[in-house]
């Protein structure tokens, strides 16, 4: 089997959300002398990318996405054990995220949290109806790289602007990148309040964050 | 080149040329056709859209003979509620609000709704709702529905007894999330039936299941079960209005009559609503605030036309803030609301709004 076939086999185990098969393929690849890092980046990660696309198109759903990501995580453990310590893959960055104060809508935010974890970010999910101060405190506590807020209503959207100001006041604004999302957010809104990033879907947001994180 | 005043999806005024408008129509139509796997609008429809957008008048209307019934969901709140509730803050009782809609706004039907507007909190105050409904019926003649949201979110923590899938799923607790949702479906179905039957006992004309699917496929599953039961056991008319264009798969495996609920677009949602026995279907197409109104409305009309082409029951399209091609704005501007309404009726062939 050439490398390409190994990578395709690995991607398929993730697409099939088959944890057992993912672990087996990872073990066999290591035994066959395939570079674990290549297997991860071009095989299993490719599978997650493909399932992310299917999720975006509404062809697979959140529970399936999570089970698929668990298959990948299990395979990654096998591959990491075969890697020299200095090549272990680090988390892409720390993200503090929540639905803004007054807003109890959190389905979209939950999807975003799942996608961030799937793609290797360290996520601190503050939940729904989160006071501005809690975002700031958590960002400071964990030394966050990104702070994301979600708003579904025009009445709560203004909290995203207040968060920008609160981060500046706390001296954190230059240390973190901010992102805004939710049904009412737009690129125009992000520009207006000075947020660093806006994305329409969770997948798009993760891709933009990965780019910023250099992952 | 001449530019026309129009709107972006967040309500901001923008100007677009003929070519820009046409390009956005085509792109919006294509997006709907690809996502929903439905027919695109015809060239004739596209020309009609262009006429509507380039009409120099601020307000447009349908041609004589094309009028359709206008129904309202929790319209009383729009009068009583303040700006935070998308209302105008006039202190009126709910019965007064219904009378204003009937006698001043010429609504063709109206509904009574509780301030919380979800089924679950109505259960403990159902006796008061029955009384209020009877009072409203005594002084109005238009069909009067009782409206509420299935809102399965209220059955999950911190508002309800079951674990919250939005917390459980990201934590990888898939089995627990699925079980919590299945339990919520069972309880919500019972509550919706209980409340509707109580209202049927005081002569209620019908029930409007509003914003169905807001919490995903569980929301839709509970509603379909409740509707099926009510249509078999009561004389209530039933309207099912959706929350969004796409049924979110928070559970992912729930089915109704063998059809998986997750991922359904309006024309497929309609089939199941008809099978459950509902009398009116209210499709929703969401507005993307970052796209132009031309893109959004062309897309919305494409989805709706796919519904009306196959519908066996009347299609009353949800129109307003952030749906049906109207901007996401507390009080959508009149130029956009009237254009969206005209297009939905004359191109989308909606039976009512």
Question: Can you walk me through this structure?
Answer:
The complex is a heterodimer of chains A (215) and B (353). Chain A has a five-stranded parallel sheet, sandwiched between helices. With 215 residues, chain A is of the alpha/beta class. Chain A contains nine helices and five strands, in the order H-H-H-H-E-H-E-H-E-H-E-H-E-H. The longest helix of chain A has 21 residues, at 36-56. Chain A is 58% helix and 10% strand. Chain A has helices at residues 3-15, 19-31, 36-56, 62-81, 107-118, 132-142, 154-169, 187-193, 202-213, and strands spanning 94-99, 122-125, 146-150, 177-181, 197-198. In chain A, strand 3 (146-150), helix 7 (154-169) and strand 4 (177-181) form a beta-alpha-beta unit. A five-stranded parallel sheet of chain B has the order 3-4-5-6-9. A two-stranded antiparallel ribbon of chain B has the order 1-2. A two-stranded antiparallel ribbon of chain B has the order 7-8. By secondary structure, chain B is of the alpha/beta class. In chain B, a hairpin with a 5-residue loop joins strand 1 (3-7) and strand 2 (13-17). The mean pLDDT of chain B is 95. In chain B, helix 1 crosses helix 11, helix 10 (266-276) packs parallel to helix 11 and helix 11 packs parallel to helix 12 (334-346). The A-B interface holds A 57-64, 66-67, 70, 104, 106-107, 109-110, 113-114, 117, 123, 125, 127-128, 154-155, 183-189, 200 and B 8-10, 12, 35, 84, 153, 165-167, 169-170, 172, 174, 177-178, 215-216, 246, 248-253, 262-263, 286, 288-290, 322, 328-330.
Helix content of chain A: 55-70%
The residue fraction in helices of chain B comes out at 40-55%
Task: State the helix count of chain B.
Answer: 12
Largest sheet of chain A: 5 strands, parallel
Tell me which oligomeric state these chains represent.
Answer: heterodimer
**Distance between the first and last residues' Cα of chain B:** 35 Å
Proportion of strand residues of chain B: 5-15%
């Amino acid at each position: 089997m050439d490398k390409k076939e190994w990578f395709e086999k690995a991607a398929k185990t993730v697409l099939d959300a088959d944890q057992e098969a993912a672990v087996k393929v990872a073990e066999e690849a290591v035994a066959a002398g395939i570079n674990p890092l290549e297997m991860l980046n071009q095989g299993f990660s490719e599978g997650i990318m493909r399932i992310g696309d299917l999720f975006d198109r509404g062809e697979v759903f959140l529970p399936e996405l999570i089970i698929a990501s668990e298959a990948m995580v299990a395979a990654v453990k096998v591959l990491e054990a075969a890697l020299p310590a200095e090549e272990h893959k680090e988390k892409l960055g720390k993200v503090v995220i929540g639905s803004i104060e007054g807003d109890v809508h959190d389905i979209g935010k939950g999807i975003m949290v799942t996608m961030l974890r799937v793609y290797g970010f360290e996520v601190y999910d503050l939940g729904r109806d989160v006071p501005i101060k809690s975002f700031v405190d958590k960002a400071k506590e964990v030394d966050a790289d990104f702070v994301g807020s979600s708003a579904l209503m025009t009445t709560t959207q203004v909290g995203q602007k207040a968060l920008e100001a609160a981060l500046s006041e706390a001296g954190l604004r230059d240390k973190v990148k901010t992102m805004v999302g939710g049904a009412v957010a737009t690129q125009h809104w992000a520009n207006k309040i000075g947020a660093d990033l806006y994305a329409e879907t969770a997948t798009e947001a993760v891709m933009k964050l990965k780019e910023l994180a250099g992952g | 080149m001449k530019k026309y005043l129009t709107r972006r999806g967040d309500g901001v005024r923008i100007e677009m040329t003929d070519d820009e408008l046409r390009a956005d129509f085509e792109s919006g139509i294509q997006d709907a056709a690809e996502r929903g796997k439905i027919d695109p609008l015809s060239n004739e429809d596209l020309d009609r859209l262009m006429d509507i957008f380039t009409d120099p008048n601020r307000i447009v209307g349908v041609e004589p003979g094309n009028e359709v019934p206008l129904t309202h969901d929790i319209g009383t709140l729009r009068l009583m509620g303040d700006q935070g509730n998308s209302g105008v803050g006039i202190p009126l009782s709910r019965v007064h609000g219904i009378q204003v809609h009937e006698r001043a706004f010429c609504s063709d039907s109206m509904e009574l709704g509780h301030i919380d507007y979800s089924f679950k909190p109505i259960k403990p105050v159902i006796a008061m709702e029955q009384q209020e409904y009877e009072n409203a019926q005594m002084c109005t003649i238009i069909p009067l529905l009782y409206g509420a949201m299935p809102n399965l979110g209220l059955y999950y923590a911190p508002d309800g007894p079951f674990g919250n899938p939005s917390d459980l799923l990201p934590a990888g607790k898939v089995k627990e999330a699925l079980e919590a949702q299945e339990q919520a479906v069972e309880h919500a179905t019972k509550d919706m039936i209980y409340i509707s039957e109580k209202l049927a006992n005081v002569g209620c004309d019908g029930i409007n299941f509003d914003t169905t699917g807001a919490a995903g496929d569980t929301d839709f599953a509970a509603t379909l079960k409740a509707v099926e039961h009510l249509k078999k056991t009561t004389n209530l008319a039933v309207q099912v209005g959706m929350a969004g264009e796409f049924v979110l798969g928070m559970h992912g495996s729930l089915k109704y009559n063998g059809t998986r609920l997750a991922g359904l677009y309006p024309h497929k949602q309609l089939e199941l609503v008809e099978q459950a026995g509902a009398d009116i279907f209210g499709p929703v197409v969401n507005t993307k605030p970052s796209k132009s109104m031309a893109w959004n409305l062309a897309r919305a009309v494409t989805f709706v036309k796919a519904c009306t082409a196959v519908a066996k029951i009347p299609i009353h399209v949800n129109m307003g803030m952030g749906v049906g091609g109207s901007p996401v704005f507390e009080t959508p501007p009149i130029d956009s609301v009237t254009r969206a309404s005209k297009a939905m009726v004359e191109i989308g062939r909606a039976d009512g709004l």
